[in-house]
Design goal:
The protein is an alpha+beta fold and about 150 residues long. It has three helices and five strands; from the N terminus they run E-E-E-H-E-E-H-H. The chain has helices spanning about 45-70, 115-130, 130-135, and strands at about 10-15, 20-25, 25-30, 75-85, 100-110. Strand 1 and strand 2 form a beta hairpin. The longest helix is centred in the middle third of the chain and has 23 residues, at about 45-70. It starts with 10 loop residues before the first strand and ends in an 18-residue tail after the last helix.
Length: about 150
């Protein structure tokens, strides 16, 4: 089945060098750094949101796959941890990349299904999760200047 391509959009406005106010559909939230990294701790930071996005997406896909296989999940707890070397971000010479060098996702599943059945659900879910796919595969990102001057932005 080929579904029609979906487009997602986010609008955001900087309130300070570390704080960004984001609007997504009818939701608004802050992205900010903790005080220890120069922010005001008004919200999660960008890399924490990447990890949270992975958890949110894999939650949906695990439940979808389990339902397709007739497996009942009574409960699911996800833990996501990422290792990040901030050297390149901070402008220091390094051979390390700016992003996570590794992300570990652990799923604790409450179900009557066997360990093998749950392993298969997790394996399939990882291959079908759009956020995991974006993290596991190179996705082109382009940054370009808008023609509207910032002074005219409301």
């Amino acid at each position: 089945m080929n579904a029609k391509s979906l487009k997602f959009s986010v609008a955001a406005k900087s309130e300070s060098p570390t704080k960004l106010m984001v609007s997504v559909r009818e939701f608004s939230f802050a992205i900010d750094e903790p005080e220890s990294l120069g922010g005001t701790n008004a919200g999660p930071n960008p890399v924490e949101l990447v990890l949270a996005s992975l958890a949110g997406c894999i939650n949906i896909v695990i439940h979808m796959v389990a339902a397709e296989q007739g497996i009942v999940i009574r409960g699911l707890r996800l833990t996501v941890e990422g290792d990040l070397d901030p050297s390149l971000l901070m402008g220091s010479p390094t051979d390390e990349r700016a992003g996570f060098s590794a992300i570990a996702l652990t799923a604790e599943v409450d179900s009557d299904a066997s360990a093998e059945e749950i392993d298969e659900v997790l394996r399939i879910a990882e291959t079908r999760c759009p956020v995991a796919d974006n993290l596991n595969s190179a996705t082109p990102v382009t940054l370009q200047q808008a023609l509207t001057p910032v002074s005219t932005l409301a």
